[in-house]
Automatic annotation (TrEMBL):
Keywords: Repeat. The lineage of its organism: Eukaryota, Fungi, Dikarya, Basidiomycota, Agaricomycotina. SMART domains: SEL1 (SM00671). The keyword Repeat applies. This is HCP-like protein. Signal peptide: none annotated. Residues 1-76, 462-499 are annotated as: Disordered. It comes from the Eukaryota.
Length: 499
């Protein structure tokens, strides 16, 4: 199932709500310890009679919250996101470019997390705007994720329990509000609540609950929510919370694709290319969908860029021509969006001079790990990690220092990711003592793990050659070139082979 879409919260609409003129003297009554709309048995009563007595949706102030004083002039917005309060605006007669009034005064103070939540709740409760109520519900979900939980020790079990209870209380309050909004046809609330259930938020034992998520995805899709239509399609395709039905999945994917959802368009393209979801194989239609998806690619859905790059690398008879230059361009676009497989592929191209790319150590390492975001390696892309093992064994003057220790650590990271050849390499490093103290028992352990993954060389090492390590030649783990120190011709030509 696709990762949860990034939600971009709309600008806050608090500027339209009543706000006291001077926060430095503002001291509203302390709300009751219970939330303003804590879930009660009748919270799920959606009858008209119940709504008439629902002070939240009627917009009347709830008990325990003092009425807010009115004001005569607009004040600059208070930044709840940064927990700060700005001073009132200066008189209109003052010079426009005089920013001295923006300097913090003596009464400036940061709001605590709980106080921020109280103010947010008070403002949300005064409005009947479903978007503002939805924004507050999502704020509570986000706050529950970032709520600090102290480390569990024998002396603070009570504090840990209180923090966990506070987190659960925020989730209960948020999901109760989301359900009320969803029952009244608010598409964003329907989708967000479904996404919470699908990710185990607000569910029993925090387990994924697609039985509750799928119907909400369908409801939001009927209201034109593209993400919801895509998620409903994935549910139907995989049988999550419903029967596995390819025809229904296609319907949802096409609905989302018509709204230019990149994930849905990519799935339709792959289905057309491979004849999946009950479709006949049609490369031409598949390419059309992939191109549309690539035009709307995002950091969450960059897959069409990568797939098109691979297709242009090998071509399709009478459908798609080979174009290495365009292929590398597509890979670069996907890599810029943070897609690790594309970054790794470009690293290979510049390392070995593939697809018309020049051999360039700096660019190769750049795409393996030295980007700003460390795209490939930081996403635990095991092949990229193992490629860095080879680079660190020989080094690259002016780009990457030679380091056996780093070579071992990157090989270990790739091995822990399940790469068989990396497991064999780690075993060899431990056996010979490259970048780490020699440890025969650990070496045997890694060799055995590599054998379980089908590595034949590890099996040979276990059979009888472990007492005769081979630093080079056939069957060796590394070949550092003629000089053996990473500075001669072998290093320049990148002859280090991690097999």
């Amino acid at each position: 199932m696709a990762a949860r879409p990034q939600r971009q919260r709309p600008p806050s609409s608090f500027d339209a709500l009543d706000r006291p003129q001077d926060f430095s003297t503002y001291n509203p009554a302390i709300p009751p310890t219970r939330g303003a709309w804590d879930p009660e048995p009748d919270d799920f009563d959606d009858s008209p009679e119940h709504d008439e007595h629902d002070d939240f949706f009627s917009g009347s102030p709830g008990q325990g919250i003092a009425p807010q004083p009115s004001y005569q002039q607009d004040l600059p917005a208070s930044s709840l996101a940064t927990n700060s309060i700005r001073a009132p605006s200066p008189p209109a007669s003052g010079p426009i470019l005089d920013h001295s009034h923006l300097r913090p005064g003596k009464q400036a103070a940061l709001l605590s997390h709980e106080r921020t939540l109280e103010l947010y709740r008070a403002n949300a409760k005064k409005t009947q705007d479903p978007e503002l109520q939805f924004e507050f519900a999502t704020f509570m979900i986000d706050a529950s994720k970032s709520l600090p939980i102290p480390p569990s020790t024998p002396g603070n079990l009570l504090q840990v329990e209180r923090a966990m209870d506070k987190r659960e209380e925020l989730i209960r309050e948020a999901t109760a509000l989301l359900k009320r909004l969803a029952d009244r046809g608010h598409a964003n609330s329907q989708y967000f609540l479904a996404d919470c259930y699908a990710n185990g938020i607000g569910t029993i034992k925090n387990k994924q609950d697609f039985d509750r998520a799928y119907p909400l995805f369908v409801l939001a899709a009927k209201h034109g929510h593209a993400d919801a239509a895509y998620r409903a399609g994935t549910c139907c395709e995989n049988g999550w919370g419903c029967r596995r039905e390819s025809a229904k999945a296609l319907t949802f994917f096409r609905k989302a694709g018509a709204a230019q959802h990149p994930g849905a368009m990519y799935r339709l393209g792959i289905a057309e290319l491979n004849g999946e979801l009950g479709l006949s194989r049609s490369p031409k239609e598949g390419i059309k969908w992939l191109k549309r998806s690539a035009e709307h690619a995002t950091a969450e859905f960059p897959h069409a860029l990568h797939e098109l790059a691979l297709l242009h690398e090998r071509g399709i008879d009478n459908v798609l021509f080979v174009d290495f230059e365009y292929s590398t361009e597509l890979l670069a676009q996907a890599a810029e969006l943070g897609y690790a497989p594309s970054a790794y592929r470009l690293g290979e191209c510049y390392e070995y001079g593939k697809m018309g790319c020049p051999q360039d150590a700096a660019l190769s390492i750049h795409y393996y790990v030295r980007t700003e975001r460390n795209i490939a390696a930081q996403q635990d892309h095991r092949d990229a990690c193992f490629a860095l093992t080879a680079w660190y064994l020989v080094g690259s003057p002016g780009v990457l220092p030679q380091s056996d220790t780093e070579a071992f650590l990157w090989a270990q990271k790739a091995a822990e990711g399940g790469l068989a050849k990396a497991m064999y390499a780690v075993g060899y490093f431990l056996e010979v003592g490259i970048g780490t103290p020699a440890n025969m028992s650990e070496a045997v352990s890694w060799y055995k793990r590599a054998v379980e993954k089908g590595d034949k060389r590890a099996a040979q090492r276990l059979k009888g050659s472990m007492n005769q390590p081979l630093p080079g030649g056939p069957g060796a783990v590394v070949d550092r070139g003629e000089d053996g120190d990473g500075t001669g011709k072998g290093a320049k030509d990148k002859d280090c082979v991690v097999m």
